[in-house]
Amino acid sequence: MTQIPRVTTTLLLALAGPALAAESSIKLPTQTILGSNPATAADALPSASSHVDSNAISPFSLGANLSESLQRVPGVLALNRQNYAQDVQISARGFGARAQFGVRGVRLTQDGIPLTMPDGQGQPALFDLDGMQYIDVLRGPLSALYGNASGGIIQGYSAPAPLNPTLDNRSAVGSDGLWRSRLKYGGQHGDLGISSNISRLETDGYRDHSQAQRDLANLRLDWDIDDASTLTLLLNSLDQPETQDPLGLSAAALHEDREQAVARAEQYNTRKTVRHNQAGVNYQRTLANNDQLTLLVYGGERYVQQYLAFTGDDPFAGGGVIELDRRFGGGEIGWLRDTQLLNVPIELAAGLTYGYQGEGRKGFVNNLGRKGDLKRDEFNRVDSKEAYLISTWALTDQWSLTAGVRHSRVEFESEDDFLSDGSDDSGSADYRQTTPALGISYQWSPALTLYAAAGQGFETPTFQELAYRPTGSGLNFALQPSESVNTEIGFKLREGDTRVDAALFYTRVNDEIVTGVEQATTDRSTYANAGKSTRRGLELALEQRLPWDLNAYLAYTYLDAKFDQYSDGNGDDFSGNYLPGVPRHSLYAELAWQPDGGFSTALEAQSLSKRYATDDNQATAPGYAAFNCRAGYRHELGDWALEPFARLDNLTNKEYIGSLIVNGAGARYYEPAPERNWLVGIGVQYQWR
């Protein structure tokens, strides 16, 4: 199967191939649909980046949550909330830490298809981890070239179809009634490559009232049309019915019983149903002059019904049952050229993108778990139009420059169909921003690369954050985008069995979007703009191969994130306080042993320092260190392969807080992690030869 470049919403930021001293140029950041050799893909990128290969995506684990693999990425905090109604909690250098569900401030894509909507809200449950070949994570100034809400980029790349048809099943059972099974098929049939999988997850949940079922299906078809063009079709589906939501716990409830659900969760039967279907087509053609033209088109639908923990029958409450019926789609056309300017080899990328999100939003009274009278009815839409131009310059054999600019226009519009007194809650907002970025790298030696970068970024509020005003009804169009200035210096060392990545960064944010004043009787949040905030820190990743088939890995992050100027609507001054939900220190370490013969095992450690739960820094989650172990064995017998595995998490049975609901309603901030828990499973594979 021919390997083909692919574009995502920027065409650009996963740089392919470092510029070695003997090379005369550096390749512009093209991406591939069918998989590539990414081992050196980001070495020349003048920005912090991490590569997570397939061995680390599901290292004898459940294989269902992005937090399982992203915990090893410095600068990124990926936490399993033990609540499938709210999904994994992900932030990068503090961007996105405020998110009470879904992902904000961090863009998600897989195989060219954005998993972040035009308004900036992402859904990590949509990642096809079963078909994933590797994940690239980008932080720092160059990530701003992705446009709105790009404090960090998480990009998934699916594996190409195997040459020989292959069928495999992987099933696992674990604590709290956990069960997951997936069936996967892949094969090359002439010029057509087929990769597909289906899976089901069921769990009773660690806490009361947290039962969940999740079904996923994914299909990718890769077609080599001719020597110059290729076409890829992607289909994805998620069905997650009636997922129970136990809500966050207060400090008193946590001390009383960490496994309990909030009483209001039982009373109002808090739960969420999600159905999501999408399709994408990616076409790429090499022109006669070796220019590359790419065209990406995608679209889909998403339905959400959520029962909240209150009636919502007050005049401006908008209901305690939310129904969202969304249609979304978009596309990108990109152009790539190698050329020279002033006798300097350069590579240029330019493109246009468009994204659309149209959503019918209704609110109903929650009559103790049953849908009541209509309280809200509106149609909301977002249009995102962007243009970008990026270049890489091979200034000398050692110096290279990456420079780019992206212009974004994001338009929000709401049509109120509920009020009819001539003063309805319709409205609109139009946000425009141009985000430049510049990075330079210097190849000190074949093993060591130094770099520096600077850039501007911005983040609009999502429709969910605009949905409610602090007082009255209608969208909160007073909420403004946040703007950031990002700088970074770092180095990347590749010397024999040693790999080191280190970065120092400094970020200033104006109009930081924060969770506003909460109503103690509801689980509904409003949002506001803080004045200014600063993030400064250090990221370090170290991998070292050791004797006796041992491999050591360490990822450490120091992040000092504070409000410089921030007074809330009540006149309270939080200037100088730490950003809630952001630990100052985070660490992941792993010692793995993989001798010849198919057996492997590892000891893992994860540690977070104290985190604040509120803007006033009065509520905290203590720091912790947790230890896990895993083991597995792969045995091949003719056309068959067997892979039994097991893992034990939280070996010391420690009680700690897994994640926080920042400024949560009713002081219910805490989502506890399970004590000691287990998982066992087996993979069975058959290949036709």
Q: What does this entry look like structurally?
A:
There is one protein chain. It contains five helices and 40 strands. It has 689 residues and is mostly beta strands. The chain has a single domain, classed as Maltoporin, Chain A. A hairpin with a 4-residue loop joins strand 20 and strand 21. The N terminus is likely disordered.
- Architecture in CATH? Beta Barrel
CATH class equals Mainly Beta
Gross morphology is globular
Radius of gyration: 24 Å
> Which residue ranges are poorly predicted, with pLDDT under 50 across at least 5 consecutive positions?
1-41
CATH homologous superfamily grouping? TonB-dependent receptor, beta-barrel domain
Number of strands: 40
Average pLDDT for all residues: 87
* Beginning-to-end CA distance, first to last residue: 17 Å
**How many domains make up the 3D coordinates?**
1
Subcellular location: Cell outer membrane
Keywords: Cell outer membrane, Ion transport, Iron, Iron transport, Membrane, Signal, TonB box, Transmembrane, Transmembrane beta strand, Transport
Family: Belongs to the TonB-dependent receptor family.
Membrane topology: Multi-pass membrane protein
Summary keywords:
22-stranded antiparallel β-barrel; mainly beta; single chain; globular; 689 residues; disordered N terminus
